[in-house]
Amino acid sequence: MKRLWTAMREWLNFLNGDAAYESFIAHQRQHHPERPLPSRAAFYRMETDRRWNGVRRCC
Amino acid sequence: MTDVNHEANSKAPARASLPWPVWVVIALVGAGAVGGIALRRGESINSLWFIVAALCVYSLAFRFYSAFVATRVLMLDGSRATPAERLNDGRDFMPTNRWIVFGHHFAAIAGPGPLIGPTLAAQFGYLPGTLWILIGGVLGGCVQDFVILFSSLRRDGRSLGQMARDELGPLGGFAALAAVMTIMVILIAVLALIVVNAMKHSPWGTFTVSMTIPIALFMGIYLRTLRPGKVLEASVIGVVLLLAAVAGGGVVDHMPALRPWFDFDAKALALMIIAYGFSAAVLPVWLLLAPRDYLSTFMKIGTIGALAVALIVLRPDIHMPALTPFIDGSGPIFAGKLFPFVFITIACGAISGFHALISSGTTPKLLSNEADARMIGYGGMMMESFVAVMAMIAACVLDPGVYFAINSPAGVVGADAATAVATISGWGFPVTVDEMQHLATQMGEATLFARTGGAPSLAVGMANIFARLSGDGLLALWYHFAIMFEALFILTTLDAGTRVARFMLQDLLGNFYAPLGRVSWTPGVLFSSGLVVLAWGYFLYQGVIDPLGGINSLWPLFGIANQMLAAIALCVATTIIVKSGRARYAWVTAAPLAWLVIVTTSAAWAKLFDPAPRIGILAQVADLKAKLAAGALPPEMIKQAPQLLFNAHLNAALTALFLLLTWVLVLDTLRVCSRHLRGLSTPPFSEVPYARTQLSA
């Protein structure tokens, strides 16, 4: 039951984008260690601008 | 193009398939359930039949047909690196767990469409709509979403418009762009009209829906400054506030001092929504759009899940007959015969061209394994189709008399309650004024007559279902919860759609005057947002003043446009299959394409030239002119007449434009395919070459 709950939480976190910052930092560390890392707030700002630049929702 | 089959090296985990006797049983149960729905002619039928039929059809289609499409037609290859892997930037392109991609994809494709369409189509009875949702879904919509997702996956996640341009030529690209823009405008107008009809003279509904704006603003500020990027937290707070707003609406409704502040007629509400749409399009996304979208995604998945559980637990009886007399085209909700109008009315839920934009936009940039395209493309649409089946059930559990009283415009059944119930009872669907008044009181509304657009009747249906779990005392709360839930994601679509249309328009205008194309130049942003809002606002206002309620003319227009976009997507898909050297399987997309072309052409033709004024626009113009000349119109109609005439001409021109664009694209597809088959030159096949995946699954 507890494992199911953890899995649910994780799924929700990925789905709504809470985990996006961690994934991005991990990616940057691994592939572009020389680039500066944005703060969580700055990353969220970049993300909202990028995400809403196209068709995101349907009828 | 090398046709090496990498299937043997596929890293997709092999899932154990059920033994064949189980599939025989599923097939027999499914056939029995579909047969039961089709042949039953009793007083009522249990909704369990629908659920069983749908689940059997979906599992068979997914197990066999989608497997055939995946292995024989598209030759999905799990060993092939996806764009997410090759172009990984940690944000836009990123290999993501398939269940998360599934969640993203479903949340993006499922909107108000599959809820509204089936509700309106229930005027033909439950049978035609249900069959079309099931058959159109598994053979049409699911295939379209799947093939487009696959095509975009093999083309670095390119959009439908870009693929149309690459594979067909500039004409195809232009037709796709023009279609998307016009659909967007009509779609937003018709959705806004639905919200207006649900809120008019309903202080409770208006209060609840208007509270979603400050709640979203609060969440936006919370996410930006208080706790940056903590979406789950903010959404939970938002949902709690929303529920409080639903309950608060009831309090406002009972306070004579506050009530008038939220009691508006349709015209005032339309103007407010237009003003809101403009502000939403020019305000920064983090403030209103993004938080509203988080909220509506939560509510959408939660409510749809709850509805599914409630339907399975309660198994309510269906009271609508299998077929009503309105299959002859005389229906009060929208005019037009069963063929082709049921296929136009139910667009989303069976096949929706709009999905092709999602399948070729965000989703392909997230998939880590090409083999998952089947589950996400085909499976995601199956889920949406199931939502449409549930909406059909929710509409049909209502007494048919009540259903028609809520959904019929005053212009058809009569403006006062007594005339309306007399007309509806005369059709063989008995209903009384007392019954309607009692229902309205239960739901916390002044009246439920002529609440066109589908949202109120769906809300009554949902409230009835949920209240069986909670007791009748909460009916009004459930009703306004359902209204809030529908309005929430309708307004999200409205915001997001206005914004997308604005970007497209800026892109287009930038060709004429470069500064207009810059997304950061304020006058350009204001100007192009204004143009977009003006365009849909015009259609919205036209719908509000239309004596027949507006839905009558706008929903078919939206359906035709959406099915036309699906035709464009299927043209692109067919061309890609032919060019990939598997022309013998081209029927997989060409057959639904042919059906859609037949349907949209007949519907557009009927809208233009049908001799009945309620169906044919030109006949409507002639009828109005004749009445005007004979002086047979009431004074307020005479004042409105010039505008009504202009609107009719505008609708006719749009319909003709849709028809023209569809045929141009179909002929272009035929040209490119036949040239390819004869070995003549065509635009080059734009698939990205094979690269082996480095990901361990």
Key attributes of the depicted protein:
heterodimer; A: 59 residues; 66% helix; flat; B: 697 residues; two-stranded antiparallel ribbon; 26 helices; 1% strand; disordered N terminus
Question: What do you see in this structure?
Answer:
The complex is a heterodimer of chains A (59) and B (697). With 59 residues, chain A is mainly α. Chain A has a domain at 21-53. Chain A has helices at 2-16, 20-31, 40-51. The longest helix of chain A has 15 residues, at 2-16. Chain A is flat. With 697 residues, chain B is mainly alpha-helical. The radius of gyration of chain B is 25 Å and the shape is globular. Chain B has 26 helices and two strands. Mean pLDDT of chain B is 90; it is low at 1-14. The chains are: A mainly alpha (59), B mainly alpha (697).
Short description:
Chain A is an all-alpha fold and 59 residues long. Chain A has three helices and no strands.
- Structural category of chain B: mainly alpha
> How many angstroms does the end-to-end distance of chain A come to?
36 Å
What is the subunit organization of this protein? heterodimer
Number of helical runs of chain A?
3
List the helices and strands and how they pair.
The complex is a heterodimer of chains A (about 60) and B (about 700).
Chain A (H helix, E strand, L loop, with lengths): L1 H15 L3 H12 L8 H12 L8
Chain B lengths: L19 H20 L5 E2 L1 H26 L9 H4 L11 H12 L3 H9 L4 H28 L6 H9 L1 H30 L3 H24 L4 H23 L12 H17 L6 H26 L2 E2 L19 H8 L9 H5 L13 H24 L3 H8 L2 H4 L3 H10 L6 H10 L12 H16 L4 H35 L12 H24 L5 H29 L7 H23 L7 H14 L4 H43 L20
Antiparallel strand pairs in B: 1-2
Helix pairs in contact in B: 1-2, 2-6, 2-15, 4-15, 5-15, 6-15, 6-23, 6-24, 7-8, 7-23, 8-11, 8-21, 8-22, 8-23, 8-26, 9-10, 9-12, 9-21, 10-12, 10-21, 11-21, 11-22, 12-20, 12-21, 13-23, 13-24, 15-20, 20-21, 21-22, 23-24, 23-26, 24-26, 25-26
